[in-house]
Every structure is written in structure tokens, then in C-alpha cells.
Amino acid sequence: MPETLDLELIRTLSLVQETGTLARAARRVARTVSAVSLQLKRLEAQCGRPLFRRSGRRLALNADGERVLAMGRRMLSLNDQLLEGLREEAAGTIRLGLPQDVAERWLPTALARFGRARPRVQLEVRVERNLVLQELLTGGGLDLAVTFDPEPGRPDPEEAHLPVRWLAARQFRWAPGTALPLVLFEPPCTFRRLALEALDRTGTPWRVVFSSPSLSGLWAAVSAGLGVTVRTELAAPSGVRRLADRRLPALPTMAFRVEGARDVGSGAVAELRALLVDTLRQAATTALPGRRVAGRR
Prior knowledge:
Largest sheet: 5 strands, mixed
Shape: elongated
Order of helices and strands: HHHEEHEHHEHEEEEHEHEEEH
Number of helices: 10
Mean pLDDT: 84
Radius of gyration: 28 Å
Distance between the termini: 88 Å
CATH architecture of the largest domain: 3-Layer(aba) Sandwich
Number of domains: 2
CATH class of the largest domain: Alpha Beta
Low-confidence stretches: 288-297
Helix content: 40-55%
Structural class: alpha/beta
Strand content: 15-25%
């Protein structure tokens, strides 16, 4: 019966060739140099011939070693592809939570990219308010979620930072001496709280003219000119512009991030997280820069 080569020994051979020395390879795998050397000797014993020649202080592959390395890397690749595919099928489903701002405009492109890369992984997507997503994530109901918070204490390079804006339809006008008409999500809502706190802090009169649990309903009311809303420009429709009015108080920046309920260091969950981070960064750079409502006061 022919002998079966140990793939871990071939992996060590590949690592030694990649790093150039036994010492560097040993550091990469947190083993001693003697342990790595022993693995190479075991591989030579399995192959029935030497695989190296000395070249100064470095180990250089001889002709047989080069052939074993070339074929061995192909074997490792097939092995890794098989195991990764099995892990995907075993994992089955990734539970993803998104706020409506991200889901309505940016989700389709991101999911299409992920589906091409991981066709066997199923996604269960929940579109909820930010506070609900944070609760689900904490309670283990989601694997990944895009969440946001105002004015982060320590900026994270993987966050996307978007300014919160007063937004209104192009035709909207706020008459002097009248309360600001507001179009807001129903409470609890982070953006609603920010808006009302800012207006109360500056003594600006306001009234809620339209309240909705739906982002599409909110944008419809704003587009119709009913009033002003407070969001980032992440998913604002084409008819909505930033309201530039000196009577309005400044608003903070919102930090969007991708959070995981468990370790996302490798595999499909890590790939999806990286893809979402990239999507948020792209959204932050293209989210309607400089669009303003006429009639600055």
C-alpha cells in the first residue's frame, strides 16, 4: 500500500521556503527550530530521499524538493478549499442586522459581492432600528450588525464617520417666527433625540408634523415638503437636500461600525464583516456631498 504524505509536513516545507530559514519559520508557527527541523526530516523520510541542499546558512531545495513543494502546494490548496467548503455548509447561516439607511441603498451591492464569493452561505437579514440591532447583538440574536453612535470617544479606523444633517425638500421654506416642522422616526430613535436636544438647547421652537416607523415613509414626507428631518445623507433620495439655515443648531458626527457577536477572525463571517466595512467607507465618501437647499438665512 502506498504511503500517504502528511500535509502538515508539506505545510511546514512551504513555510520554510517562504520565510527562507528554519528560525523564521519556527517563529511564525510558535515552535522551536528543532521541532521544525524534525518535521522536515520526517517529510524526507516519507518521500524516501533528501529534499534540501545547503546554500550557506540557508536551506535550498534540490530538484526533488522543488517537485514535492510544487505538488504539495497544490495538495494543500485542494485540502484548504475542501475544508473551507465544509465549514461553510456546517455554518449554514449568518444572521445579519442592518439599519434601514444601509439596507435600502447599499445592501444589494454588498450582498451580491458576498454571494459570488460565498455561494453556499445563507444570509438571514434583519432590518431594524439601531437600538433594536444593538439589543439583538448583545443577546446573541445576530452574528453581525451595522450599528451607529454619535460622537465616538476614540475613532476606530474601521468606522465610517458621517455628519448628521438637517435635511429637507428643495422646495421647503421655513417661515420666520414659526416653529420648525419636523419629520422624525417614532421614539426611541437616536436621530430624533439628537434633533430635539439640539433645538431645545438653543431655544429653537419646533413641532413634529409627521412621525413614522419606516424610513421610506419618512423620506416620502420630507420629499413632499412637509418638514425637516435629521439623518445622515447616507440614503437620502434625490429630491432631498441639506438645509443650510443659520437658525439651526449644529449636529454631531455619527460613527457607523460593523460589530460581531462572536470572534470574527476568520471564515465567511470575517469576509462579510470586511465587505460591510468597505461598503460603509464607500458610502461615507459618496453620500451626497454638498447638496443644499436654496434660501440660506
